[in-house]
Amino acid sequence: MSKAPELLERATSAAAEFRDFDQEQTDRIVREIYLRAMDARVTLAKQAHEETGIGVWEHKVIKNVIAAQLVYDDIRNERTVGVITDDERRGLIEVAQPIGPIFAFTPVTNPTATTIFKALIAMKTRNPLIISPHQAARRSTVATAEICAEAARAAGAPENAIQWLVKPSPDTVNDIMRSRQISLILATGTDKLVAKARLSGTPIIGVGPGNVPVYIGRTADVPFAVASILRSKLFDNGSVCASEQAVVVKRDTADRVEEEFVLQRAYFLTPDETEKVGAIAYDSERRIMNAMVVGQSAERIAESAGIEVPVGTRLLIAKLDRVGRDVPISAEILAPILAFYTEEDFDTSIKRCTEITWFGGAGHTAVIYSNDDERIKYFSQVIDAGRILVNMPATQGALGGIYNALRPSFTLSCGSGGRNITTDNITITHLLNIHRITRRRPNPRWAQFEKVHFLNEARTAVDLEQEFDRNF
After folding, report:
1. Which end of the chain has fewer CB atoms within 10 angstroms, the N or the C?
2. How far is the C-alpha of 317 from the C-alpha of 336, rounded, in Å?
């Protein structure tokens, strides 16, 4: 039997109670969640790693700190209750209201960090939260939700401000998604999950896949660029969707870039080895990456593929000349595997980056290593990516708050290219209804423009424009 009615009823009751909370009460709840999540950062990271077998537990600690510390620092001083702006001159007052109960999915790759993040932004906006964990990360997700819920209750939150599904059944998940008692679905997960949520009829903030291209230009500092790519791609063994998937270079810089990758313990696969790794990394028939390689080390993936690599190999790189379903490593693979493309010039390099993006990561993230401002501007104009990162690691850069001023987030939307509503790093501003009180402030430009100008059919649009500009 579906448990949806009980969960929904409790969430609706909590939402009604939450509407009476002031900013001070709200902020007290958010701070307590942050403090307890930080205290549990190591325990939860180890639990997630043990349960899922994905990534590096030390890196999962860092993810938890990003989700707790950086997100809390970003939102702590923002007003989310009552009047948030009051412009007397314009006669406009903006009032923040909660949107209501939120249904949130959390992924297997970042289960504890995403739960912390969503708990913080939901409580800051006074929206009850129901969490649906990925089945392969159920225990660590529930453990995180319990810590956040207990912290919220201790700080005075409604009893059922944070709830979760212990064993999400398809019927329960579908019933909750389709319920009119749910105001929003925060869908962080696979394409299939996001598409299913989109069909529910409930408003959704979703994410798109990342197939992140990286262009290393002529003016780039190559050792720095390669070290930066490795810092990102090896973070939690490449399990973040914003991690780099392909490096694109011009022919006159390719040797230099390849040498630097080898110096930093990357291994370039032979054509035969590329085929073997591609066969275990990507399911071309189902058009998805294979779970067995997600978040695994380069050496372990090589062993699974039946190939020998030097001891200490950190990254596997495949030289490719095409993008498509018949080229498995040209797709998004959340593991220490990179595609490597050598192009004739800048224009063909950018075309390749565009092709990679549209193959599986439209709207998500793209990176350029360059010190040429004109090239950087051109790159940002032609590549369909919500986050254009310049000279920084893709993973940490896209998550925000470490190398740039992007808002820290574990839900990275991809705009229309990724079938999402926005290209933003999702945060508290997306979880509020803003009510606007507007007082009478006549527009003098309109009031002084005589009605006769509009009624005279002989006056053309150009005549009216000129008249308007002359007088006002």
Report:
1. N
2. 9
Residue 414 appears among annotated catalytic residues: no
C-beta neighbour count of 26 within 10 angstroms: 22
Using one digit for the tens of pLDDT, what is the confidence trace for 346-365? 999 999 999 999 999 999 99
Expressed in percent and rounded to 5, the helix, strand and coil fractions of the chain are: 50, 20, 35
pLDDT, one tens digit per residue, over 281-314 is 998 778 889 999 999 999 999 999 999 999 999 9
Q: Are 369 and 217 in contact (CB under 8 A)?
A: yes
> What are residue 246's DSSP bridge partners?
213, 339
Beta bridge partners of 339: 246, 318
Among the options 148, 241, 353, 414, which is catalytic?
241
Predicted model pTM: 0.95
Give the up-direction half-sphere exposure of residue 298: CA atoms within 13 A in the CB hemisphere.
24
Regions of the chain where pLDDT drops below 50: none
Q: Give me 297's structure tokens.
A: 């080390």
Residues 6+ apart with CB under 8 A from 306: 276
- Tell me how far apart the alpha carbons of residues 41 and 144 are, in angstroms, rounded to a whole number: 9
Per-residue burial over 77-108, b = 16 or more CB atoms within 10 Å of its CB, e = otherwise:
eeebbeeeeeeeeeeebbbbebbbbbbbbbbb
Domains, the chain, in order of start with CATH, read 4-207+426-434 (3.40.605.10), 212-406 (3.40.309.10)
